[in-house]
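I have a small job for you when you get a moment. Can you supply me with one protein entry, sequence and fold together? It will help me judge whether the discrete encoding reads sensibly. Write everything out right here, beneath this request:
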Amino acid sequence: GTTLKIKIPLTLAIIPALVVTTGGDRFAIPQVSLLELVRLEGEQARKGIERIQGAPVYRLRGHLLPLVHLNKQLQITNHGATADDAINIVVLQADDRQFGLVVDEINDTEEIVVKPLAKQLKGLAVFAGATIMGDGKVALILDVLGIAQRSNVVSELRDRSLGEEKKEGEGRGETKQTLLLFSVGE
């Protein structure tokens, strides 16, 4: 004679995410920002990563891809590092820029329920929320744009200035017109 009622809020968002491990902790990366996964092993791992003015980059199909180490960005000690010398790179897109996020391990893709962060943690730009995994442990959801801005892959100043220019133009009532200029013949 027991009746159970479960109320599920409609505002919960369920998104596909890639689950990665760094420093023994699991993190979720929304797949909307994910482009591809790259694994460098052996000689390729040792010689594939170059440095330009001290910043690590990887040459991916002729284009330089800036690398961001997740453990350094989150200031995690790397006690959970794998024994092999392989490098796992998650290629992400933030705004119009691509960058590689170096993680210890790539686990799997999962459908996750996004839980908002508490108001005390809202100021952390590198996290978009949290989720409870199937085993009951919490995994933080990474904010790809926040990580890109914190690691200086995407400029915060540029993004803010573009937003301010739009607001200024709207405030003055200016209208803009897009034109295509071309010539025919000589």
